Give the backbone structure.
Amino acid sequence: MTTPALGVCYYPEHWPEDWWDRDAARMAEVGIKFVRIGEFAWSRLEPTPGNLQFDWIIRAMDVLGRHGLKIVFGTPTATPPRWMIDKHPDMLAVDAQGRKKGFGSRRHYDFSHLGYREECARITRLLADAVGDHPALGAWQTDNEYGCHGTTYSYSPAAKQGFQRWLAEKYGTADALNQAWGNVFWSMEYNRFDQVELPNLLVCEPAPAHDLDFRRYASDQVAAFNKVQFDILKTKRPDLPVIHNFMGRYTEFDHYDVAETLDVASWDAYPIGHLAVSDEPDDVKRQYMRQGEPDYQAFHHDLYRAVGHGRWWIMEQQPGPVNWGNFNPDPLPGMARLWAWEAFAHGAEVVSYFRWRQAPFAQEQMHAGLLRPDSEPAPAYHEAMRVAEELTAVGIAGKAAKGRVALVYDYESEWAWDVQPQAKGFTHGAHVRALYAAFRKHGVDIDIVSPSTTSFAGYDIVAIPALFAWNDALRTAITEFEGHLLIGPRSGSKTENFSIPNKLAPDLPTNLLDLKVLRIDSADPSVEVEVKGGGGAVRHWRERIETKANVVMEDVEGWPVLVNQGKLYYLGASGTKALIQRVADYLIAEADLPTLALPAGVRCRTRDGFRVYVNYNAGAATLTPAKDEAGYVLGSSEMPAAGVTVARLATVG
Ligand code: GAL
């Protein structure tokens, strides 16, 4: 499917049945095409064990279907009912301090608990049989937000047994495990797999390879959990897409792996809530408190396009104030429209608002919907309606254009630098996002790519910052790449088993890059060392390198910062935004990449022969028409606050 559409999340079990028809009629009036239901309804679908009550939800599907709406059916496995805990008391997850989590909210299950996994298979099978042939069914959603509320890791007996089995399969013998983890250090050697502990409640830190393997294990459990449901749903309806709704800035499991058993990736976009709980500086938080940070959404759109192998949705789009920040600002008028347009520009197939009507009860009663609790339209209702009309008028279809710049994003690297920061706050994601923002300032289309990518053909620039360890695919891809390649800092500084490589970082053949990282100088982020000639400063992380490569930038203390050997550039430091911008600008100039002169706070992306501009400012901005554009089909060069302008490209379509 390539024509974008709107959706909404709806909970028929929250409202009297005689409201459903009017609700569905109004959804259709707004121009909504997809309605997600079901994902928290287990206590109504099976109030007591084996007592299946599916009639009501089938009636809800009938009503929605009568109004031409397509249903996304969510499996209810994120909210096991109370009786399930009586049946499986040991299915509750245990936190790192050894405390069992309780019933009374949601996501109270342990991914390692095979009994619960079987219960999930059972309810999924029953639901697939009951609703799988319903004519209004358009897609499935598995569970809800894997890992939300810190639920990927559990330190339960089930997790310990599962981890031991996983290790036995991976290493075969205890000796091999001892060797891989470096257990001779501090006499940590094991004789048997059943002696291996989880990496919590130790006297001090575990071996980094122990910690990393536990994270790999936990990630595999999420993927295995998803696969069980995927297989059942696909067996029932091979033609319907299976989707999961991932989250923003969430890294505890490998999303690429989980998406191996999905047809479409989706994520839940809460721009204002995410900015409020982020580590952005206070001035950025204030400037964008009603809009969200201008690159945050786009980064995730591009990430989930990669995770979904090109197919992705927004399953939940913030419509107004949320309830889960310390403070929950009201969006600037127009933002619920802007966010949807921006997602479509990045290739979203569907943008689905969360939720239809604000619930007057329970945990999320302060969370806005498209309707107020009194059923009158909230501002986003009208904005969604406008988006639906505009989508038809503009006729955008097709796919997001292939980017000119690719950034490798890797979950394992996120875990590795969390296991062993060396500089507090040094993360893979922060490096990727800083580069992402620096390239995007110039209106350059960017793709995020996975570390198992085998070819970078077609890209002008590829960046691989803070990569934990090389794999064979990536080594081949960089060896064959003919464009400009930016590597580092810290990339290739470990082996898969979390040791320093024999050749030292970045562990590349000398014909590609003759360079060794000899040691690391890390400092509190308030310490900045200026980079000579052109601004920017090294901050947080600095590598003492030995190289025959050409020095492009060095700091005032004479440490090389950016070096190159042919088209391969190595960055030996992290830095201020100004430094990262300078590095991106340098690469863009060297690669002779076309750029756009965007006003501050304005961003853009191309899809299907259209360029979509979004204005994240609280004030107006003026666009300079680009040479490859053949006029505007929505909006104009004068963009109001939260404005959207769509240009048709002259060269395509
Ligand atoms: C999401 C979740 C929804 C709802 C929403 C509120 O994380 O999937 O169920 O809780 O947040 O913003």
